[in-house]
Design goal:
Blueprint: E1 5-15, E2 22-33, E3 38-42, H1 49-56, E4 64-69, E5 72-73, H2 79-86, E6 89-92, H3 106-116, H4 122-135, H5 152-164, E7 170-174, H6 182-199, E8 202-206, H7 210-216, E9 219-224, E10 227-233, H8 234-239, H9 244-251, H10 291-295, E11 301-304, E12 307-309
Parallel strand pairs: 3-8, 3-9, 6-7, 7-8
Antiparallel strand pairs: 1-2, 1-4, 4-5, 9-10, 10-12, 11-12
This protein binds adenosine-5'-triphosphate (ATP), iron/sulfur cluster and magnesium ion (MG).
Iron/sulfur cluster binds near residues 289, 293, 298 and 311.
Length: about 325
């Protein structure tokens, strides 16, 4: 079966004040996603997760590479073809309030993407928006309210309804539950899961919280300084990480890392994406780094089918993960 999304060597850079320097926010990322799957994307702040999501949504233009959605390269599309293709891909953002127009009633906000694309007549659009209200579990009387008259959880349901109104194949969720408290997080994650099974959606789920990923994703990709370091099934990455950066992220998650075990503290900040370190870009913070790590960019290795890692020593390092059982801490809404 051909994949839903096939990203190959994608690069996005931003200008800086100096004309000869660019921020390499996404610097050669490749992965595939299948129809209906959830791929988690984790990494520290500044690693390029949102830029990757925004590039797929064409909110920023990639500088190189391809991103094929059901065979069509999103990077090369322009004008009308681009707008048509973009209906298949939608995004839900972190701040449920900021992404809604404060002066528009929420039902009209859900109709808006249909109106912009001139889908059906007003009656059809209203009926479709109400259908979405039901689907995301919002009571229809809330439709006449303005965003500030809704709770955070209700607003995020409106955002999800708005993202689904054009019937997309892939939804990029960028920290979509991070602004909510733990009980609400569990509720919205459950909703996303139900919508996925009813509608066959795929999610690219961006978060800094590994326990959220463990709760919702099938596979997870770990990003550092514009590149992927490791990608594979969630349970394998969490219980048996193969990349030292993944090991550190797993160990630093208070909600899944049991008390009393050693926490690996990553010293220093993430280096500048204008001048990333030579060789392995994690080497300046890696406790296993050798001279070779400064000289050679690590090639991808596949320690198990579907599990890939970019570290010279992936086959020999004995890295520690956590127990699979301790990753389901969002169940019941309690940490
Ligand atoms: N519009 C922009 N202009 C210049 N640099 C930018 C711009 N947007 C992001 N960056 C830089 O690109 C890099 C990646 O940023 P990005 O927002 O993609 O990271 P992130 O992984 O989503 O981080 P966070 O977890 O904080 O949301 C950072 O160094 C950031 O400062
Ligand atoms: S290649 Fe070297 S620096 Fe990079 S993660 Fe592996 S051991 Fe650490
Ligand atoms: Mg971000």
């Amino acid at each position: 079966m051909s994949p839903l999304l096939d990203v190959d060597d994608l690069r996005v850079s931003y200008p800086t004040r100096r004309r000869d320097e660019r921020v390499k926010a996404v610097d050669g990322v490749s992965f595939v996603m299948q129809e209906g799957e959830t791929l988690g994307l984790i990494g520290e702040s500044g690693s390029g997760k949102s830029t990757l999501g925004r590039a797929l949504m064409r909110l920023v233009q990639p500088t190189a590479g391809t991103a094929r959605l059901r065979g069509t390269d999103l990077v090369a599309l322009r004008g009308r073809a681009g707008r048509e293709m973009s209906a298949h891909l939608q995004m839900v953002f972190q701040d449920p309030h900021a992404s809604l127009n404060p002066r528009m009633r929420v039902l009209a906000s859900i109709e808006e993407p249909l109106a912009i694309r001139r889908v059906g007549d007003r009656e059809h659009r209203r009926a479709r928006a109400l259908e979405l209200f039901d689907l995301v579990g919002l009571s229809r009387e809330l439709g006449a309210r303005y965003p500030h008259e809704l709770s955070g959880g209700q607003k995020q349901r409106v955002n999800i309804a708005r993202a689904l109104v054009l019937d997309p194949a892939l939804v990029v969720c960028d920290e979509a539950v991070s602004a909510l408290d733990v009980a609400l997080q569990a509720e919205i994650l459950e909703l996303l899961r139900r919508l996925q099974s009813e509608l066959g959606l795929a999610y690219l789920f961006i978060t800094h919280d590994l326990s959220v990923v463990a709760h919702i994703a099938d596979r997870v990709a770990v990003m550092y300084l514009g590149r992927l370091m490791e990608i594979g099934p969630v349970d394998q990455l969490v219980t048996r990480p193969r990349h030292p950066y993944t090991e550190a992220l797993v160990s630093a998650q208070p909600r899944i890392s049991p008390d009393g075990r050693e926490r690996i503290v990553l010293e220093g900040d993430i280096p500048s994406p204008v001048h990333p370190p030579s060789g392995c870009r994690f080497r300046t913070r890696c406790r296993y780094a050798t001279e070779r790590c400064a000289e050679e960019v690590p090639a991808w290795r596949e320690p198990a089918p579907g599990h890939r890692v970019a570290c010279h020593y992936a086959d020999t390092l004995e890295l520690s993960g956590v127990d699979a059982a301790s990753t389901s801490t969002l169940d019941g809404g309690r940490p």
